[in-house]
Write a structure and sequence with these properties.
- The protein has 18 helices and 15 strands.
- By secondary structure, it is of the alpha/beta class.
- The protein has helices at 48-51, 57-64, 75-84, 93-99, 120-132, 146-158, 168-173, 175-183, 197-205, 213-225, 239-258, 274-288, 306-309, 352-359, 370-384, 390-409, 427-434, 445-452, and strands spanning 11-12, 22-24, 70-72, 89-91, 104-109, 137-142, 161-167, 187-191, 230-232, 265-269, 295-301, 311-316, 325-330, 364-368, 414-419.
- Helix 12 links the parallel strand 10 (265-269) and strand 11.
- It is globular and about 60 Å long.
Length: 459
């Protein structure tokens, strides 16, 4: 029998009263703030007025707010959250026993809604502010499809038009993802497409390309700015998205505090940084205020290693260079991960907030190879039952590594990791792993130098 079984339940529940009523903005507690978005034309910080041409007004306010620590969650959004939140905080007793580790492992499971990931937490917020502004609709990009699905759900609920540009390889590999979005009423276009100017340019420059998030972002932005009553929304990277995702960390902290549990290590996968930023925010706040200390680990794919091998610099967020410049750890906006990379997390850059925290040494990062990620995901599925999204598998891999270290050293560390979603639409990737045909790809220094050499020159 496992230790402590009777002390701490497998799942720590929260009542509706205990759900967060405010989001937490970690920027308020950062001494050095994340660098501002710059206008690529002038090199000057983007003003609210400039941003409001592309983004919803209230979201621009949140994007630029580096000072307000707590921001009220509108009642309508709280009510929507209640349909699928709190998300479970699970003590992985079964995994601990299988690993024979003295470590205590907890995971916060965000895959418990139909869209299958944490993305719904920000989708509903962004759709809500668009609706409140009286807009007709919103445009966006989606890579693996979770963000597009989440936004389709939120838009359907609020009766907003939703146009999704879906990276071509996913559009073709994940037809059912596409149909889920269409069922929720979204229109889905394979990207790059010939319906936008930037899409046609990209097709001309890279004929036959399978597309990338960077291309799809450019198309979605162009669509928004050329159609009256539309704005563009983004599912990760931006400060506002990390803010909305803070519900993950706030719930986790409330649940852990109930039992006096203090995590030693907090681990999350990092694509654009939103789930990780959301999970760690309240804990990072304590660290920044000097109230507590934690080890934070961002986990990224070795095939798209923004933190561990990227450059901290201003870069474009998109391939067509229509978006503001963001200062972040980046591989260069023309970097496209190898097509055999199946595990998601393929954005070339990273949240500016997390980039600054990482730059200050407040957070660590690790890059892991995809076969080891699927091995960990499969081990987890077989013991804890949940079929993880490949993205989530990155966090599982490092959580298991850390737990195994404790087996060797005898340390009883408490590990918390983010299990961001489920992998039902990733079965081609699982099939490749099960068939033994999955390979690892690590870009060479020359590959990275080529895309880094194209960073914009900022004085
Ligand atoms: C989008 C996604 C991620 C990565 O995005 P972040 O913004 O880095 O959180 C991770 N896991 C799942 C399941 C996702 O859908």
């Amino acid at each position: 029998m496992n230790k402590n079984v009777n002390e701490i339940p497998y799942k720590i529940y929260l009542s509706e009263d205990e759900l967060p009523k405010q989001w937490y903005n970690v920027r308020a507690d950062m001494k050095v703030k994340p660098a501002p978005l710059l206008n690529p034309g002038t090199g000057q910080p983007m003003t609210a007025a400039e941003l409001e041409g592309v983004f919803c007004k209230e979201l621009v306010k949140q994007e630029l707010d580096d000072d307000t620590a707590y921001i009220d969650i509108p009642q309508e959004i709280q009510d929507f959250y209640k349909m699928y939140r709190p998300s479970p905080l699970v003590r992985a007793y079964c995994l601990e026993e299988k690993l024979g580790t003295p470590a205590k492992i907890y995971y916060k499971f965000e895959g418990n809604n139909t869209s299958g990931s944490h993305k719904l937490n920000s989708a509903i917020a962004q759709a809500y502010y668009a609706k409140k502004q009286g807009l007709k609709g919103i445009t966006t990009e989606t890579g693996a499809g979770q963000w597009g699905t989440a936004l389709s759900m939120a838009s359907a609920y609020l009766d907003l038009d939703c146009k999704v540009y879906m990276v071509k390889v996913s559009y073709e590999q994940k037809p059912f993802r596409r149909e889920v979005m269409r069922t929720y009423g979204a229109s889905v276009t394979s990207s790059p497409s010939n319906t936008t100017k930037v899409g046609r340019e990209i097709l001309e420059k890279f004929p036959g390309t399978g597309g990338s998030l960077g291309c799809a972002i450019s198309e979605a932005v162009e669509d928004a700015v050329t159609h009256e009553g539309y704005r563009y929304v983004l599912g990760s990277v931006l400060n506002q998205v990390l803010l909305h995702q803070s519900v993950i960390g706030l719930e986790a902290k409330t649940a852990l505090d109930k039992y006096g549990i203090k995590p030693d290590v907090i681990i999350g996968c990092a694509g654009g940084g939103s789930n990780l930023g959301g999970l760690i925010s309240p804990f990072m706040g304590e660290k920044l205020r000097g109230e507590a200390d934690y080890q934070f680990i961002a986990v990224e794919p070795a095939s798209c290693p923004s933190f561990t091998r990227g450059t901290y610099a201003y870069d474009f967020c998109d391939t067509g260079h229509v978006c503001p410049l963001a200062k972040m750890y980046t591989l260069g906006s023309e970097f496209i991960p190898s097509p055999n990379h199946a595990g998601g997390l393929r954005f070339h850059g990273m949240s500016s907030t997390l980039s600054e925290l990482y730059h200050q040494g407040l957070m660590e990062a690790r890059a892991v190879e995809q076969t080891s990620v699927f091995e960990a995901a499969q081990e987890f599925a077989r013991i804890e039952g949940i079929l993880p999204a490949p993205e989530s598998g990155h966090a599982i891999k490092v959580a298991i590594d850390e737990a195994k270290k404790c087996t060797e050293t005898g340390e009883e560390k408490t590990i918390l990791f983010g299990l961001t979603g489920t992998g039902y639409f990733d079965m081609y990737a699982y099939a490749a792993y099960n068939d033994g045909t999955m390979t690892d790809y690590i870009p060479t220094d020359a590959d990275l130098a080529a895309s880094i050499s194209k960073l914009p020159k900022i004085k």
